[in-house]
Amino acid sequence: MELLPVLGLLGLIVVKETGVPVPIPGDLLVLGAGVAAAGAGAAGAILLVAILIAGVAGGSVQFLLIRGTLRERLLRLLARLGVPRDRLDTLAGWLQRHGIRGVAVARATPGLRVGAIAASGIAGLRYGVFLPGLVAGNTLFVGGHFALGYLVGPPALEIMAGSGGALLAGGALVALAALGGLAWAALRRRRARRAVAVLSVDGAPGFGLAGYGSWAEAACPACLGLAIVGTERAG
Q1: Residue range 152-169, pLDDT digits in tens
Q2: Domain ranges of the chain
């Protein structure tokens, strides 16, 4: 693995986790990193640890900003991305009751995780409570996607090697992102018809995939499948 692309990936993850609306699904970034790490030996494990550290760093920045001077600006931004304040307030109350475990569950759940950091700040959680939950939830979500990419990496790279590699890889990423966008649009229309379509995990209030921010966090087939199941349950 080359250093410059790795640094670019880590920088992008930090920026996304601070709450900046980067139009690239986060799970696809991690899946791609897992594919790239296949066959890299110890460097692959180092990359995973670096991705986790980048996510914790960016998430910590967003958490501290929500609790500080940029609170209202960030909340308005999240509202424009489909995560309204009332849902954040509801999730904040749930996080206050569940503490570390609640943050971990929220951050490990597609769709729900997009508002978990902001809600933790609104809830006034201590950083000592928020941080362990963030680490645990990110490790489950990121580690799972990285492992999936790592496992499918060798056969995928073998196929690409004989089929015009870069073009095929680019096409696959575009197709997955497009699938995520189409599923997001379908779920949004369903939500409008039913008035509410949310994903609930262990009694937690959900966000579903109603906004751009949720699509940007959940575009892989597994995440979309979980979101669709959650939407059906809510209906």
Answers
A1: 766 655 655 555 545 555
A2: 3-234
* Residue in this structure with the two tokens 């941080």, named with its chain if needed: 131
Nearest CA to 142 out of 220, 61, 76 is that of: 220
E strand or H helix that includes residue 130: helix 127-161
- CB hemisphere CA count around 113 (13 angstroms): 30
CA dihedral of residues 149, 18, 107, 79 (deg, nearest 10): -120
Structure tokens at 26: 């986060």
Q: Pick left, alpha or beta for residue 113 (phi over 0 → left; psi -120 to 50 → alpha; otherwise beta).
A: alpha
Tens digits of residue pLDDT in 39-49: 777 888 999 99
Rounded CA separation 110/27 (Å):
9
Residue listed under structure tokens 């959900």: 206
Which H, E and C letters describe 52-73, residue by residue? HHHHHHHHHHHHHHHCCCCHHH
**Structure confidence by residue, pLDDT tens digits, 85-129:** 787 888 889 999 999 999 999 999 877 788 899 889 888 899 999
pTM for the full predicted model: 0.73
